């Protein structure tokens, strides 16, 4: 059983009910003024209805930024930003086949940021995660590199405080690593192995140490780096993941208290799920098609608030679609809902490169934002579904960036005004820009119902 909901654009139609000015009754100037007034009124109503506003705050980062993570790195109460600057990727046999730096923007409060010296990684840093990996209080940064020519597939930057980060590097052993992707005209690999594209951190074996799990897209594998007390991450063990694993997330899908893994399989147009045994082991649990081509980014959230985690996956092919797979428990995702952001399935209109899920308007329903690279827009889907039973309904909002290309997104309250903001990575401009969320209105408490005379009399008795 599959439910499908395709949302199309809503259009405003003005019907003449006798209120519009007639040429014979008004001068041309009056008509023009009326039309301008009506246009201003409509624009004002539209702006008021939008969840976000362009803040005018943007900050330069490195070349071709492709990923972002946000967290409070210095414990001042404001989220800081870490951006992976992939650069332009070229032949891995060249001296510098891509960029090798990560930008760190530290908050000064009120949407103001200053850049620290960039952190050095292997080539083509592609994915980021922030968590407390060591025994220190401050949060650390973990980076996965796609073209790790120096075999620094994973980089850990320990946060030593005072804006000092100590680097540690980890590799996936090359022995028996297959290369399953593209070749050039000389039959040489276009990329390197394993080609890490995403990373997730968590305690997968219940030892109170942070583990790392990454997808090796070029080698069709998932790499599990167990956390250790002395070296922070141990030697990885690999899990076969045929189909081009691209993005990875962790959640307890069957309610047994152990974290499971879910990955988008970019080349086979599928989602794969692996059941965690709570000891660092994973076994295939489910595999199903995503209803689109090139499934790329993914988020986990309880979209319909039924107590089960759902999978939200985006496609960066001409489908221009986001699909919600509703969890039914025990790895059951048989019910799904497609939301189309384009108008034609054979034309690339949006090119969704990233999605983020958060409650943008404080109604306790998870909303979705999509970074649309080709159209230069961020599309926000406000969740208006009131019933747990799918399909949900969404209101569309579109934010255009004047020719710039959104590549990645993150959500947080960046200025501590109790509103959720968005930071948009613009890869074509090598910068990030902030969309300010609307401040939540203060709701008056509902007046208590006055007791009736009969109830009051009974209460006295």
Give a count of the beta strands, DSSP E runs of length 2 or more.
Answer: 31
Shape annotation: globular
Report the portion of residues in β strands: 35-45%
Work out the oligomeric state of the chains in this entry: single chain
Mean pLDDT: 89
Q: Helix and strand layout, with pairings?
A:
Layout lengths: L27 H22 L2 E9 L4 E7 L8 E6 L15 E9 L2 E4 L3 E2 L2 E9 L8 E8 L6 E8 L2 E7 L25 E7 L8 E6 L4 E5 L1 E2 L3 E2 L3 E4 L4 E7 L8 E6 L4 E7 L5 E8 L5 E7 L8 E6 L5 E6 L8 E6 L11 E7 L8 E6 L4 E7 L10 E7 L5 E7 L8 E6 L4 E7 L15 H8 L1
Task: Explain how this protein is built.
There is one protein chain. With 461 residues, this protein is mostly beta strands. It is built from 2 helices and 31 strands. The longest helix is centred in the N-terminal third of the chain and has 22 residues, at 28-49. 45% of the residues are buried. The model is unreliable at 1-26, 39-47 and 442-461 (pLDDT under 50).
What are the salient characteristics of this protein?
461 residues, mainly beta, five-stranded antiparallel beta sheet, four-stranded antiparallel beta sheet, 31 strands, 7% helix, 42% strand, globular, disordered N terminus, disordered C terminus
Short description:
This protein is mainly β. The protein has helices at residues 28-49, 453-460, and strands spanning 52-60, 65-71, 80-85, 101-109, 112-115, 119-120, 123-131, 140-147, 154-161, 164-170, 196-202, 211-216, 221-225, 227-228, 232-233, 237-240, 245-251, 260-265, 270-276, 282-289, 295-301, 310-315, 321-326, 335-340, 352-358, 367-372, 377-383, 394-400, 406-412, 421-426, 431-437.
């Amino acid at each position: 059983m599959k439910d499908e909901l395709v949302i199309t654009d809503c259009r405003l139609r003005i019907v003449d009910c006798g209120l519009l000015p007639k040429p014979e009754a008004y001068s041309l100037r009056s008509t023009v003024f009326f039309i301008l007034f009506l246009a201003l009124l409509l624009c004002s109503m539209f702006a008021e209805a939008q969840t976000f506003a362009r803040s005018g705050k943007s900050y330069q980062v490195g070349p071709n930024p492709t990923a972002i993570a946000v967290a409070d790195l210095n414990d001042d109460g404001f989220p800081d930003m870490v951006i992976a600057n992939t650069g332009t990727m070229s032949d891995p046999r060249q001296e510098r086949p891509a960029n090798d730096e990560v930008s760190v923007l530290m908050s000064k409060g009120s949407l103001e940021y200053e850049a620290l010296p960039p952190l050095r990684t292997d080539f083509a840093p592609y994915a980021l995660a922030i968590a407390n990996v060591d025994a220190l209080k401050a949060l650390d940064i973990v980076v996965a590199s796609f073209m790790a020519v120096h075999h620094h597939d994973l980089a850990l930057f320990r946060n030593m405080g005072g804006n000092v980060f100590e680097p540690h590097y980890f590799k996936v052993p090359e022995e028996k690593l297959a290369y399953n992707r593209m070749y050039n005209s000389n039959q040489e690999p276009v990329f390197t192995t394993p080609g890490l594209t995403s990373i997730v951190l968590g305690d997968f074996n219940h030892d109170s140490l942070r583990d790392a799990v990454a997808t090796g897209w070029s080698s069709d594998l998932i790499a599990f780096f167990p956390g250790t007390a002395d070296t922070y991450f141990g030697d990885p063990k690999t899990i076969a993941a045929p189909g081009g694993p691209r993005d990875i997330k962790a959640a307890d899908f069957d309610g047994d208290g152990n974290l499971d893994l879910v990955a988008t399989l970019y080349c086979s147009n599928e989602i794969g799920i692996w059941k965690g045994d709570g000891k660092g082991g994973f076994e295939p649990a489910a595999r199903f098609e995503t209803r689109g081509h090139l499934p790329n980014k993914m988020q986990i959230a309880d979209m319909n608030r039924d107590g089960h985690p759902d999978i939200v996956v985006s496609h960066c092919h001409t489908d221009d679609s986001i699909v919600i797979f509703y969890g039914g428990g025990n790895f059951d995702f048989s019910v799904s809902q497609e939301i189309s952001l384009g108008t034609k399935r054979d034309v690339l209109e949006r090119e969704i490169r990233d999605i983020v899920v958060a409650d943008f308007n404080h109604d306790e329903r998870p909303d979705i934002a999509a970074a649309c690279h080709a159209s230069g827009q961020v599309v926000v889907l406000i969740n208006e579904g009131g019933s747990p039973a799918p399909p949900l309904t969404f209101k569309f909002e579109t934010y255009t960036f004047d020719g710039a290309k959104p590549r990645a997104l993150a959500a947080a309250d960046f200025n501590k005004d109790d509103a959720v903001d968005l930071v948009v990575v613009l890869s074509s401009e090598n910068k990030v820009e902030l969309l300010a969320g609307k401040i939540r209105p203060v709701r008056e408490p509902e007046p208590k119902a006055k007791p009736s005379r009969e109830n009051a009399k009974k209460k006295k008795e």
